[in-house]
Amino acid sequence: MDIVLVPGFWLDASSWDAVTPQLVEAGHRIHPLTLPGLESRDASRAGIGLADHIDFVAGKVDSLDGDVVLVGHSGGGAVIHGVADRRPDRIARNIYVDSGPPAEGQAVNDELPADGDEIPLPPWDEFMDMDLVDLDDQLRAEFIARAVPLPRRVATDGITLTDERRLDVPVTVIANEFPSQILRDAIAAGEPWVGELGRVRDVEYVDLPTGHWPQFTKPAELGAAIVEALRDR
């Protein structure tokens, strides 16, 4: 199976390096991506929005034969949901890593402090404690060393969704910061923040307790969870 790996904010394709060996060992073909504007700290980020990231990943899907699995971490979840909307017949499964599908018009995070056309990685004390579970001093230093400012509009643009067939794409949610039961309970209560996830017709949940960056804090466990989500598919 072709697996396209979409990083979250401030990260590039190399952020998946510790996860991919298990996927390759299981026989999958992996395609970790660096999204537009994240190529380097010196790259231009002017004019790059969420739709550009979605179009970039959709183009990668178009370059591959057969069905494709998309894995999206954090803000990458909005990207893979947008691709499912544009290419619903090509996506075998969407796997959301500490993320989920946004609803029409929803932005990923329009409260992050921007500096012109970009959003730098905020200081650690601006994250919630549960974000940082298992992210020790060494991992934090490595994160800072690799972090690239995010194009501002990727976080602030509302997503455009037009094809209801996106809701037929099977989904796996890998819950990290809080138990998946919270998602189920929120859906049952009709909470708006999980409204789109509640509309998806085929959802599986996997609990992998850690902070917001399991590709760094529990990469082997994350790789195993992705492999298991695709077993017999």
From TrEMBL:
<dbReference type="InterPro" id="IPR052897">
    <property type="entry name" value="Sec-Metab_Biosynth_Hydrolase"/>
</dbReference>
<dbReference type="Pfam" id="PF12697">
    <property type="entry name" value="Abhydrolase_6"/>
</dbReference>
<protein>
    <submittedName>
        <fullName>Alpha/beta hydrolase</fullName>
    </submittedName>
</protein>
<dbReference type="InterPro" id="IPR029058">
    <property type="entry name" value="AB_hydrolase_fold"/>
</dbReference>
<keyword id="KW-0378">Hydrolase</keyword>
<dbReference type="GO" id="GO:0016787">
    <property type="term" value="F:hydrolase activity"/>
</dbReference>
<dbReference type="InterPro" id="IPR000073">
    <property type="entry name" value="AB_hydrolase_1"/>
</dbReference>
<feature type="domain" description="AB hydrolase-1">
    <location>
        <begin position="3"/>
        <end position="222"/>
    </location>
</feature>
